[in-house]
Structures are given as C-alpha cells and as structure tokens.
Amino acid sequence: MTIRQTNPPFMSGVPELLVLRLLARQEMYGYELVKAVRVVTSEAIRLGEGVIYPVLHGLERNGSLSARRKAVNGRTRVYYSVTPTGQQRLDRLAGEWERIKNGIQSVLESPQNA
C-alpha cells in the first residue's frame, strides 16, 4: 500500500507558483483555485483551502495580487488577479522551478555510473 504525502517538504513555494500562474491566466476566487490546481495537475497536486487562502492573503498583502468582491448568486466572492508585482514574482519563481526541474531531470536521465 502506497501512502501519498499531501504536502511533502519539496513542495515549498509550489502553492505560490501555482496560484500566481493560474491567476495570471484568469481572475478566480479561492475555491475555484483549489479545483483548478487539481484539474491542471491531473490530481497530482491537491491543495486544500487551508493552503490556498493563506497563500492568497499573503500575496495580496505583498502587492502580488489585487482582490475585488463580487456578488454571485446571492453570495459575495473575492476574486483575485495578478498585479505587475505579482507577474514579476511569477517570472522569478517560474525561472527557479525551471532551473530545478532541469537539474533533477539531468540526474534522472544521466547514466547510472556518472
């Protein structure tokens, strides 16, 4: 039986990267982001509301996201979108993850006696 860890240590920084990337594509509210992460990662990454909302609030506090309230079906939802500061942060994070991914990929693909 394989036990999957829901938030392994190497995931540090991943929620922020995913949130910024998804919001750079389109404005969304919190629970919509929870579902979107599952869909775009084919369920490989499952971030609950307890992860997503603190990330959203932190990114809003540091100026990476803007938020606006919108009434939908009698409820008020907070929709988030990426600011220019957030786009710069996304670019930096994406570059770092690309570098890390390439490094790991080179190890996985290298001959065993390297």
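[next item in queue]
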Amino acid sequence: MIKFYLKLIFILLPISILSQVTSEQVLYDYQIAYCVGSSNSTAWIGEEVVIMIEGETASERDSTIMDTMVKTFENIISKYEELTGLNNLPIASSYDNKPVIEVVIDNCGAGGLASHGVLGMSTGKYFLDEYYDLVNQGINSVPQVFLYELNRNFWQAGMDGFNGKFDWAMNEEPQNYGWWTVGMNNAQAYIIPKSLNIGMYYFGNDLNYWETRMVGELEDYMNDSQYDFDFGWRQSLMPWHNTESINDLMSGLIIYSYNNFGGESWIKGFYEHIQNNDIPNRSGVFAYQECRDNIYKIWSYAANEDLISFFENDLRWIITPEAKSCVTDHVNTTSNAVNKSKTKTVLYPNPTSEMIVVKTELNKARVLQIYDVHGKLVKQNTLNKLRNSISLSDLANGIYLFKIEDEIFKIIKN
C-alpha cells in the first residue's frame, strides 16, 4: 500500500509545486510578430514553453501568476500533441530550444499570428493582460486567441494537408476555400479547455457561451428542412444567419460530434483518419460529393459507428452507396478487433459532474477503490455486474484515481 500511495502522490502532485517559472532579460529577435524585429524583452521560461514579453522587466509581473500561465500553455500544447498525434513539430520562434509565445506591443495589426505545422504564436499585450488578470482573480480561463492560434500549429493546411480530405470551394469560386481550417480553430477553442477542465474567455463570455453559439448554428440548420448541403454548406455566409460565416457552422458540427460521438476518443480518431491513407484526398475543390463522403467516413471511422442516420436524416446530405459500404466494412472489422482485445474496463464520462459508469467484460465481483490527490482512500465499492454506475455526488470537485484490480484510471470531477 505504501508503494501505491507514493505513486499516487507522484502522479497527481500539481506541476506548479514541482517547478517554478524563471525569468530573464533578453534582446529577442521576434519571428512571428514579423514587424517587430529585435527588442528588449522578458522571457518567462517554463519546462516546455517560453512567454516572451516585449518592453517589460520581470518586476512588472508576479512570478506565481506567470508560472500558472506558462504551465497552462504547456498543458495546452501537450493536449494538442495527444489529440492530433503530431509530436516534435519544428519551432517557428525559439528560446532556450523551447517554443515561444510572443507578446508584443504591436502585433503587426493582428489579434493573433501563427503558422501551420510549426510551433509558436504571437499576440498583443491586451490578451496577455486579460489572461493575467483572470489568473490573478483565481480564474484559469484562457483567452480564445491563444487556443485559436495554437491550433494553427497543429493543422496541416493546404491541399496536401488535412484540407485535402474534404475542403471545398464556397459560392462556386475556386479560390474561396479553407473555411474548415477556421472552423477547426474555433472548435478546438472549446475542445481543448473542455478536455483540460479549464475555462475559455472570449470578450466577457465563457466556454458555455462558445458552445451555445457554435452548436446553435448547427441546430438552426438541422431544425429547418429547407436547408441541405447545397443550400447551407456551399455558401460562405449561412442562409439563416447571413451576417455570420460558414466556419461557425463547421465549428458547431465538430463540437457537436465531440460531445455526442465519443469525446476524446472521437477527436483522436478524427485526426488519425485525416492523416492516414485509408481515405483518399478529394480530387478538387468542386468535388462536393467526394467531400461529403469523406466527412461521413472520417466521422464514422472515428466514432467506430455508422453515422449514416445523422448525415442523411439530420444533416440531409446525400451519401453514395460506395461510401456506406466502406463504413460498414470498417466498423465491422474494427468492432471485431475490439471484441478480441484484452481491455477489461472502461469508465465514462470523463470529466464528469455526477456519475461514473463502469463497463467491464468480467462477470465477477471486483473491488473499486477511489483515491484523492493525497493518496487517501475516499470511497470503495464492489462491482458485481457487467455495467455499474457510481455516484460521485458525495465527493468534492477535483482529480481522483480509480483502482480496479491492476487497472488505474484518472477521473476528473467538475
């Protein structure tokens, strides 16, 4: 028991206790904020990320607050790597061999800047000050601009990149494409904080507002039968909300899919299937049927479920018999493989606010033990059914370890 207790403490001890951000005064040559050049700056240096602030000294910021901010950015980038499978990206702006978040006085007239496929971003001091003030109030809610721009780093744009699977031209204009990139930027501004159990801040609004705004566009579309693929998905402005762009509808679809088709498992599958060769690129920006079929296949492969009812009935998209056959074959093959796996137990949802469902293949009594962050046993239950739901209403919000025989699961209650 002592060894297990120590293991719990090591796993769950907050990172901020284990290390502290350091600061240095430097002359830094800004790479992403291209209009700045070299400028006197303060580098706030973490284990994996540096925040570089133009024109400041270290005394102007509280190191504890900066430590929280740096650690959060490190967690965000780590989560991006986990979900996308893109590790060891090249660094666009580097200090101490670490990617830099550049914070400048004038961000070349832009709210945020970043490139695709390389680590690093820049923004103005307004957004850093906004985040700094939130953390100072005890609120770890990251301004949307940081999540939006960092997503660019993890999105392989262009026709040979992720866009090549399903990006299409709007308004019959051959150069009017790339909207799925923006849609993914905004969707990840919801998914990453949700997955990390932190907040997102957008000009006074929170994560719930963001979800309602984006998914609301999808609901408006689905609830009105006059809209279909040709009248709703091929215009850069949405017919039912013609002051807003199509990327909000795309964001709504991705967020809805994350929430309904498997959470992190689904989004990881999404990235897996836009990167591998099991689904070919569409032949061009006007290949609308190929794009529809590819989205249906990617979404279904990621969910390990045939989502044809959702696409044909809810979205009113036409899907070819060939695409349906591909999904049927894939889902059947994958399901057979899963059934033969050695996985004993699945716990969901995670994070959760009230209840955990334990699904186990073993039809025998098994003891479930729940430990808090200090390694203290706070709850114990005996599982004696293949499916068992456990209330967490008597536990405070936080991180817990669930131990079932030799299996350990980290569960977040919020």
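[queue empty]
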